[in-house]
Amino acid sequence: MSAEYRTYTRRWGVLATVISINFACFTQTSCYFSVTPIAAEYFDANDVKMDLFHLLGMVFTSPFILVALYAINKIGLKWCIRLGGSIVFVGSVIRMMATLPVLEEKIEPVYKFYLVLIGQCIVCIGHPFIMVLITKVSQTWFAESERILSTACMAITPTLANIFASLLSPAIVADDVANIKYLNIVYAAPSVIGLLFCLLFCSKSNPPTPASKSGENSEKKTSYTLKDYFSALKIILTNKTILGFMFFVGSLLAIMNSSVSQLAQWMCSVGYSSQQIGLVTALLMASGSVGGLTVSAIARKYQNHIVILKITYCFSAISFIVSLLQLREPHLYYSTLFTLMIFGFCTIGCFPLSLELAVEETFPLSPVYSETTMHFPAYAYAFILVNLCNNMTWEQEGSTQHTCGGKIRPWDYTPYFYLMMAEVTVSAIAVLFVINPK
After folding, report:
1. Does 115 have pLDDT greater than 90?
2. How far, in Å, CA of 343 to CA of 157, rounded?
3. pLDDT class for 241, splitting at 50, 70, 90?
4. How many CB atoms lie within 10 A of CB 146?
């Protein structure tokens, strides 16, 4: 490394801080996904109420992504991490106190539900301040040769968190309603660790000596104003290629986000157990991690990112259509698992390719802007999809055995599935012609 640049051991502490807070956010968001029917019994809530956990999360996450985008440029890395970490910690504590064993017996189920919901909303307000930092942390604290590693560690955190929650929640609950209360205690722990790391390692926004040329350039930037913020957004939102990524790739990520959140209700309606649902969710997310790395490697090898992106997008659409057709029927567990894994592999595989192409398209703007354009529609459109899913249903046939318990009502989701099949078909055809970066 050049004598004018150097790295500091503290960089690993900053990395660990972002990872632990991100991990806390994603595990708390997904902790009920694979045990929704049992959690509904505990909170005395129906399927509509249980959907509020992720619906309100999307409502708060989407606008605060834009707030966080301004904050990271205005107040710097240190205060953005501290702000986000503190808010997430407060939300985690409220969730934990609502179901703490020594207190929860004195609280009515309906009040426990709304306390946990309030805590979840607070977590989702703080999360965007951490979510948008991946490229910024790598650029500021890590050498050029280390950025692939640091970015990868932060980028796979959501997937690892979802896998962790999908497998651990059914194991902790063990089909016993009384064990639901322990989930909020377990998943609050990473937020405590993240806050401690934040106080220990995040005392400065930048290292004393820059770690790289791009890190040095970012330190030299002048004061940031609202005018700068809106000017950058205007450049992003008037770029046809970026709009294509937002619409097609952002909507595909939204379909995956909403599908993962609804998977328990889809699968319990045709008789699958919470353990089976948890395994499907975990392997869906795990295949996504593999896809993100594999598809990017293939694109680099053949030096044709656009073609690989379009092929991967089309395979994602096909596998999703096949998965939805199978989810209408019982006793197709392993074939459904296989096609959903392909869907996860291809969908997440599209994301790093799109991000890389978007960064090139918007250079010399900070990569944080391009990253945000992917995250925003992934949450905003997912909110719409979950609401559509809840309202586009048929009555379940009486002959179909379900495992939804007494609170979650089994539905036939065929109308919604047909809508999704039509959307991804049209999108897969359109993406072949619309996304053509220069």
Report:
1. yes
2. 19
3. confident
4. 16
Give the three-state DSSP class for 395. Answer: strand
* One-letter-per-residue 3-state SS of 403-426: CCCCCCCCEECHHHHHHHHHHHHH
Stated length of the chain:
438
Query: Look-up: residue for tokens 């995956």?
Result: 256
Classified as helix, coil or strand, 367 is helix
Of 112, 165, 401, the residue nearest 173 (C-alpha): 165
- What is the rounded distance in angstroms from the CA atom of residue 187 to the CA atom of residue 33? 14
Integer angstrom CA distances of residue 373 from 81, 256, 295: 20, 17, 21
How far apart CA 120 and CA 198 sit, in angstroms, is 21
Beta bridge partners of residue 411, listed in sequence order = 395
Q: What is the pLDDT of residue 1?
A: 46
Q: How far apart are CA 416 and CA 395, in angstroms?
A: 13
Question: Across the chain, what does the average pLDDT equal?
Answer: 87
What confidence category does residue 221 fall into, taking pLDDT thresholds of 50, 70 and 90?
Answer: low
Contact 410, 40 (CB under 8 A): no
Question: Which residues, 6+ apart, have CB-to-CB distance to 321 below 8 Å?
Answer: 421, 424, 425
* Distance separating alpha carbons of residues 432 and 438, to the nearest angstrom: 15
Which residue type sits at 59?
V
